[in-house]
Amino acid sequence: MSETSTGDAVAAVASAASTGHWRRASIAGAAIGVIAAGAAAGVAIERLTVGRGMRKKARLALDASGPYGALRGTPGRALANDGTQLYYEIDEIDPGAAGPRRRRHFGRKAPAPVTVVFSHGYCLNQDSWHFQRAALRGLVRTVYWDQRSHGRSARGSAQSGPDRVPVSINQLGHDLKAVIEAAAPEGPLVLVGHSMGGMTVMALADQFPELVEERVVGAAFVGTSSGRLGEVNYGLPVAGVNAVRRVLPGVLRALGSQAELVERGRRATADLFAGLIKKYSFSSRDVDPAVARFAERMIEATPIDVVAEFYPAFDEHDKAAALPVFADVPVLVLAGDRDLVTPSGHSEAIADLLPDAELVIVPDAGHLVMLEHPEAVTDRLADLLARVGAVPETADVSGAGSG
Predict the structure, then answer these.
(1) Is the pTM of this model over 0.85?
(2) Structural domains in the chain?
(3) What does the pLDDT look like over 43-55, one tens digit per residue?
(4) 3-state percent breakdown (helix, strand, coil) of the chain, nearest 5
């Protein structure tokens, strides 16, 4: 993308925010779609009209046929410290599964099994772990939850009340603790987080180190960062990213206050929105169209005011000092080599602070690496779970690429 086209897109967004001409909200809403993919505005507008009807029919066909996101478990709700209801689901171990964790303990209570808690990223939901869930189903006890204001969880009480407290990564750490207390009140834990979910795990460790020290036996940080996100350029030229950073705060405030209008704009620019999501979520040219559409649906489902109220928290995120809490347990740090949102250098920085961690950089992979290369991610997770005794070393995770 040329610097000129980037500047044109940024100028359009800035104009929509500064002039109040909300007819331009379609462009602004589309630009915020980049943020919804975990990126920043600034991709040229093209091919908005050519073949639009055909592409719409293709999206509908993919929605009808795609199996992704259809897995469900036993539902539950946790109550956050500000009263927000957080939705989670539990997949229990199949009683017929073999392995040391199923041994009988005559005359005394069997120890609680290892529970693996999955935390998803910004503008996604628990279904983003679809492939890993399909592969691990029945082999290990797992908890999948929706972050506040995402998926089936309620809108953040502190964010929707009269005082409008901004979302913070620290709050998400409190939310994870509430989910653990409700869904896995005892027994060892493995914490898995992607992007914002990894930051949530770090926030838990920062605020509740005793919980990690007493119960966490393993952790996985997937496509995430311990801080310095304000330095990410999202693949844009210097002039483009500087312009985005200059206008973005005002644009977000304006869009968040005009949610209904901007949502119409997002729908009107669905073709551009799909292109932005693919650019900032995936690297492979041959990514399954049904998987790309699945990611698009999750991000589309995140209201624009939620997109706006979460975004500032990332600039403030700095949890490098919390990482040593995980120094004594097996840790997996994994990222795509072409991640434009949380570049692989951020995962390398995490691994530098945890020198015993396993660092895996997946070739030809973008930000949603667990959807783009599910086998690679699931295999590494299975190895981690075998190391901590959560699954047998011979566990079959061949379902990683299935629905």
Answers:
(1) no
(2) 3-66+233-312 (no CATH), 74-229+318-401 (3.40.50.1820)
(3) 333 333 445 565 5
(4) 50, 10, 35
